[in-house]
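Format notes (please read before filing issues)

Several people have asked whether sequences and C-alpha cells are stored in separate files. They are not. Every record keeps both together, in the order shown below: the sequence lines, then the C-alpha cell lines. Line labels are part of the format and must not be stripped during preprocessing.
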Amino acid sequence: MSTTLRPLLGCIADDFTGATDLANMLVRGGMRTLQSIGIPNADVLADLDADAIVIALKSRTIPAAEAVEESLAALHWLQARGCEQIFFKYCSTFDSTAAGNIGQVSEALLAKLGSDFTLACPAFPENGRTIFRGHLFVQDQLLNECGMQNHPLTPMTDANLVRVLQSQTRLKVGLLRYDSVSQGVEKVRARIAELRAEGVNMAIADALSDADLHTLGAACADLPLLTGGSGLALGLPENFRKAGKLRDVDAAKLEDISGGEVVLAGSASVATNGQVAAWLEANRPALRVDPLALAEGKPVVEEALAFARDASQTVLIYATSSPEEVKAVQQKLGVERAGALVEEALGQIAHGLLQAGVRRFVVAGGETSGAVVQALGVQLLKIGAQIDPGVPATQSTGAQPLALALKSGNFGSRDFFSKALKQLAGGAQ
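Then the structure lines:
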C-alpha cells in the first residue's frame, strides 16, 4: 500500500449522497477532499493527495451486523492511512430504524478506537435541521411531523434523538444541552467531562446555528471519533488549520468536462418531488420510470434510452412519486423489491447514456446515486464547489472523467436540477 497519502481526517458515510454532503462541507473549510465509492484499493489512490478521505458505504438500511462489519473495514483502512480523527456521517434527519444502524455502528467504532465517548449531532441549520433539548426539528416541524414519518425505508416517528439512539445501543446515551453549547468551547468540554463521569458514552448535542457547530467542533478536536451530519464537520478544518496542518490552496478547483448531460431522479422525498415538478412545469422533456412496468418485464430501460437519444435537449428520467403512490407500489411488490427494481433500472440507464456520450450526470436520491455511480464504474470523486447546501459539484478520476452532482433526496432548492446542470457544465458549453 502506498504511504504517500496521509489524510488528516478519515470519514465513514452510510450512504453515497451523505458522503458527498460531508465532503462538500470539508472543501468549504479548505480541506482538499476525496470521496471513495466503497473501501478504496491501493491502485486507485497511489498517486493522489488529500487532507480528508470520505469512504461512501451503502450501509444505512442493511442489517446492522453487516453495517458494523463494513464500517469497521473502512475504519481499518483509514487507520492504516494514518488518519488523526474519524468521523461517522449519517443523515441530518437521523435516518434509521428500530433495528439501527446509527447506534450499533457508533458503538463498534468507539470500541475499535479504544474510546469511551463521542457526540451524536445530525444538526444542519443551513438546511433547516436543528436540535433543541435532544429533539430534532426540520424547519419549524418536529422530525416525526415533517414528512419523514412517511419515508419508505427509514420512517422517523420519534423526534427525541436520545430515545431513538438509546434503542440502538447498549451504551448509555445522554444529552449535551444547549445551555452548555451556548456558553462556548470550555463549557462544552467541562460538560463532556461531567457526562463521561456519569457513565455516558454517547451524547446527543443540541445545536441551533452554525456557530454552535463550530463550538462543538472546536471542543471535540481531541476526540478520536465524532458522529453526526455534515454540519458537525463545519468546525473540523479550523482545528487542523490552527495546528498548522492545512495548506493554503483552492480545495474546490475542478476541470470543465464536455459532453452530453442528463438528470436522473429516484428519490420520493418532498424536496425531490418539488424539483421534478419544477422541471415539468418548465415543459422540459421528462420520462417517468414505472416500477410496476419493470416488474412485468417491460423494456423500460430501452425506452428511456431511446427517449434520451431522440430528445433535442437535456432530459429528466425519474421514478419520483408521492408517498401514497410509493406505498401502493410497495404493497404490490414489497419494499425491498420495489426499491431494487428502480435503482437497477436507473443504473442501467446511466450506463447506457454513458456509452452514448453523456458525461454530466445530476442524480437525486441516496440509493439512486449509489446505483448510478456503481453502474458508471466510478471509484473516486474529487469534490468541488457547492451547488446548494449539502450538494457540491464532483468529478470522477481516471482516463475519462465524469461530472456528477449527487443529491440527497431532501436537499436542494426547487430549481436545483437547472442550477446543477449549469454548474457541472462550467465553461464547457
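For reference, the curators noted about this record: The chain has two domains: 9-242, 260-425. The radius of gyration is 21 Å.
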